[in-house]
Amino acid sequence: MWLGPLVTVAFLVGLATAAVLVRLGRIRKPHHVVGALALPFGCAALPVAVLAVVSVASALIAGTPR
Q: Residue 7: CB partners within 8 Å, gap ≥ 6?
């Protein structure tokens, strides 16, 4: 229930960061443009990756039945 809004907020933060970098003129080389385009998606993937790590750690700590 909370993962969707969290991913959306992370995407918007990444998008705003990329927009600020472009506006400040920090993006000049072609590989920087690719990085700026990928930044929102990387930020959106962070909450999902954290949730996966917490889920695996929880399963390991709890001990999965065999």
A: 44, 47, 48
Crossing angle between the packed helical segments 30-62 and 3-24, to the nearest 10 degrees: 150
Strands, DSSP E only, in the chain? none
- The whole-model pTM stands at 0.76
Phi, psi of 36 (to 5 degrees): -65, -35
DSSP helix/strand/coil, 5: helix
Phi first, then psi: what are they for 37, rounded to 5°?
A: -70, -30
36 and 6 in contact (C-beta within 8 Å)? no
pLDDT digits (tens, 9 = 90+) for 9-28: 999 999 999 999 989 988 88
